[in-house]
Design brief:
74% of the residues lie in helices and 5% in strands. The chain is mainly α and 387 residues long. A two-stranded antiparallel sheet has the order 1-2. A hairpin with a 7-residue loop joins strand 1 and strand 2.
Length: 387
């Protein structure tokens, strides 16, 4: 499965594996939860309608209040079980992903592994894979639920009066323009953000892991300066990046869920004109307000999609690393002598990058050998990389 052949979202779903059934159940419960949250509004509508007609009775109040309470309990319980299922599936998926990446590193060519720094690998295993948790545990199940609620609310508003549904969408065009501008500005800097974040993490891990070697060679000052510059540079870039999108992002976040700006005036106008009743006007306002939270959540998820895409694509590159062939049968050893005959080795696989050139060596069983030159060169090169 290569990233070029499948989209990033398809790859994200394939990570679910055996957890797909739990994720599917989580999505269904999430949709039921948000739909049940609309029923109390209908109960309030019926109470206002009965009160306006002068037909409100005690048993009617108890009945509709009981139904509203029951619907609210269904909402809470379904949301709780949905969250439990999605998190249970998500963290089992993260465990499986870390095991898959670790196994791929164990079976990949040494040159392929050596091409990645310690900090890069740590960032992948700890942080990048952890970034998969929000879409699996929240964006997929909760996103489907929050997508269903505005659709149901718009259908209900259309049943009352089609003009109410159109009025609730009055602020959407301008908010989409602001959102598109935010994505356009962010898109230019997102790749640089990923590179800057990876470089900072790599520098931090390499500095901490190699502090003994750095001190041994008297390079603590220079290494700390590199360490400090990496953090300062990352901070400066992030502040500058967020400042460039602050206005358009805040306008988009403010306008997109503001359905009441169009619905309330329209309800008042239609109500005073006799096109709808007072109870229907109240229901229209409540349905409009019910969409606010869901639209705000969808906007947050949309803002995180680009980051999720970059994370999945980067993770997939590691999962697609080539594997060395493994022998089918276990070799039978007649002794423990080691013999090297004209051995050549390159980390990159290119002849020009060879680090061993036709090495021949016999190491008899039980003998002792000291490869001092190679060890000294390896130590020096490691120290220079950390500086």
């Amino acid at each position: 499965m290569e990233q070029t052949k499948k989209g990033w979202f398809s790859c994200l779903l394939t990570y679910a594996g055996a957890g797909k059934r739990r994720l599917t159940g989580s999505v269904i419960l999430s949709v039921v939860s948000v739909t049940a949250g609309l029923l109390p509004y209908y109960c309030v509508f019926r109470l206002i309608e009965a009160f306006s007609a002068g037909a409100l009775r005690e048993e009617g109040i108890l009945t509709w209040c009981g139904l509203a309470l029951g619907a609210y309990l269904v909402k809470i319980l379904c949301f709780g079980f949905s969250t439990m299922l999605s998190h249970y599936a998500a963290y089992h998926i993260l465990e499986g992903l870390r095991l898959r990446v670790a196994d791929r590193f164990l079976h990949a060519p040494l040159g392929e592994v050596a091409a990645h720094s310690i900090g890069e690998i740590k960032n992948l295993m700890v942080d990048k894979i952890e970034d998969i948790e929000p879409p699996l545990a929240h964006m997929i199940p909760e996103g489907m639920g929050h997508l269903a609620l505005p659709i149901v609310s718009l259908i209900a508003l259309t049943c009352i009066d089609g003009r109410l549904a159109l009025a609730s969408l009055a602020t959407v065009p301008l908010s989409l323009v602001c959102m598109a501008l935010t994505f356009q500005i962010s898109g230019k800097n997102f790749d640089q953000y990923v590179r800057s974040n990876t470089a900072m993490n790599s520098t931090i891990v390499e500095y901490i892991e190699g502090i003994e070697v750095i001190k041994a060679f008297g390079r603590a000052g220079a290494s700390y300066d590199k360490y400090a510059k990496a953090i300062t540079g990352y901070r400066t870039f992030v502040v500058k990046w967020l400042s460039s999108t602050w206005v358009t992002m805040k306008l988009a976040f403010a306008l997109f869920p503001s359905t009441l700006l169009g619905t309330l005036p329209m309800c008042l106008w239609l109500g005073t004109g006799g096109a709808i009743t007072a109870a229907e006007a109240a229901l229209g306002v409540m349905l409009s307000m019910s969409m606010v939270t869901s639209l705000a959540k969808l906007e947050v998820f949309a803002n995180e999609i680009k980051q999720m895409q970059m994370t999945v694509e980067e993770l997939q590159k590691y999962l697609d690393m080539p594997e060395l062939p493994e022998p089918e049968d276990r070799a039978e050893l007649s002794g423990y002598d080691v013999a090297l005959k004209n051995v050549r080795f390159s980390y990159t696989g290119e002849r020009a990058d060879e680090v061993l050139h036709g090495v021949s060596l016999d190491l008899p069983q039980g003998s002792f050998c000291l490869l001092e030159t190679y060890f000294r060169q390896f130590t020096m090169s490691t120290a220079q990389k950390m500086m």
